[in-house]
Write a structure and sequence with these properties.
alpha/beta; 4-stranded antiparallel beta sheet; 13 helices
Length: 424
């Protein structure tokens, strides 16, 4: 028996597990301290009423003989896939039903999609980056090249003259930096992929936070993208499904790759649709998302569901504004916070990322995410999220102002009123 020794090249501790350990240790030693967590991107608002109603109804159906459901289709029930197709159609994007695959979250599919690609492919990943992109490819033993994302390019890097890659990861709005690609920038990437027979793995988990109508919410807004890109979406942040687990992946039929048919005796053509391979992979390794969860997800895309989740999104947008306004007031440079739930700030006074983490935890009991955990270019940066409780977010920012010698304090009641007005 031999191990897949590539796993030994992955860091022993996942970034957020390391943060949790530090915070738990501090809390045990300081039980009287109120710790405010603005680090991990988990939502705090409950599922909206339309979703809860749909979940309850689906549970009742599972308790009656005539409406009970057993195994469902691995690709997702048509009732949900149709709603997703309609959701894209409102954004002028046409999809076929069998191009939509329902999953238990974007994180799973972003990792699992690599099953389709040979380990000899070169993977291009922007740095800083969501750790899952890197770790899953290390586990498979692929060569990874890092793309230099930094303040000079607004953390939206473009192909460089010597860029050579087969698989490209892009995330917009970006986790962790909050940066968003423009349509012109994405067109540059699409053109590159088409010219170099590369595949773009496009993470659009935060698309609902885009407020600027000139910014793309899907890579399929770009001409040619269906011939080179797979898009991953999630209901985790969109509709609070972090604990309920549901997402979807779009694999266009126009996305085709050449193969060496000498190695594949049962293949009649030297061109294969990625869509068909993903169907085969999912029907082999995935049993589908539970019927109850998919009924809840279906409710997200109803008129009432969309109205209710936008109220929640506006709540988080208001939190992001509180954080961004605080950065402006105390003079800390940052990215994101407008079309993204993340605020990516430059650590003050030349502090390192983990140094700033400890500084905030020990002095004002506020938790964020050290940028160094997202890659070399993340060193010296720090991520705060807007997914916390509103009053806690205001309190955390007041503590930060006081720490940096600013006396003006934001009132939670004032912010609550502004949030209400924004949602209207």
């Amino acid at each position: 028996m031999r191990l897949n020794e590539n796993f030994l090249n992955v860091k022993e501790s996942y970034l957020f597990s390391e943060i949790a350990k530090k915070v738990n240790d501090y809390s045990a030693q300081n039980p009287d301290k109120k710790i405010i967590r603005l680090g991990i991107g988990d939502v705090t608002l409950p599922l909206v009423p339309a979703v809860i109603e749909a979940l309850h109804k689906a549970v009742d159906e599972m308790g009656a003989q005539e409406t009970f459901r057993g195994y469902g289709p691995e690709q997702g029930y048509d009732f949900l896939r149709e709603k997703i197709v309609d959701y894209y159609k409102k954004n002028t994007i046409r999809l076929e039903l069998d191009e939509v695959f329902v999953s238990d979250g974007a994180k799973s599919d972003v990792g699992n999609i690599t099953d389709l690609f040979d380990k000899d492919n070169v993977v291009l990943i922007p740095d800083p980056v969501y750790p899952v992109y890197v770790d899953t490819n290390i586990m498979n033993g692929r060569k990874i090249e890092f793309l230099n994302a930094n303040a000079d390019n607004g953390f939206c890097p473009l192909p460089e003259g010597n860029t050579k890659a087969d698989i490209i990861y892009l995330c917009s709005p970006n986790n962790p930096t909050g940066a968003c690609y423009t349509k012109e920038q994405l067109k540059t990437w699409v053109d590159y992929a088409l010219e170099n027979d590369a595949v773009i793995l496009y993470d659009a988990a935060y698309e609902i936070f885009v407020q600027d109508e000139n910014l793309p919410r899907s890579i399929y807004e770009i001409d040619g993208a269906k011939r080179c890109a797979i898009e991953f979406c999630s209901l985790s942040k969109t509709a609070g499904f972090t604990g309920t687990r549901c997402g979807y992946t779009i694999v266009p039929k126009d996305l085709k790759v050449k193969v060496n048919k000498l190695k594949l005796l049962k293949i009649d053509s030297d061109v294969v649709e990625i869509n068909k391979l993903w169907v085969r992979r999912q029907t082999t390794k995935f049993n589908g998302v539970p019927y109850i969860v998919q009924r809840g997800a279906e409710a997200v895309f109803t008129e009432e569901g969309q109205k209710q989740i936008m109220e929640n999104i506006n709540y988080y947008r208001a939190n992001a504004k509180v954080i961004a306004d605080t950065m402006d007031e105390i003079g800390i440079k940052y990215f994101g916070g407008v079309n993204s739930p993340y605020i990516w700030l430059k650590c003050p006074n030349g502090m390192k990322s983990w140094e700033f983490f400890d500084y905030l935890l020990e002095n004002i009991n506020v938790v964020g995410t050290p940028g160094a955990g997202f890659g070399e270019n993340g060193e010296g940066y720090f991520r705060l999220t807007a997914f916390g409780d509103k009053d806690n977010t205001v309190e955390a920012m007041n503590r930060l102002k006081k720490l940096f010698g600013f006396e003006h304090q934001t009132e939670p009641e004032q912010e609550a009123e502004e949030t209400k007005e924004d949602s209207e």
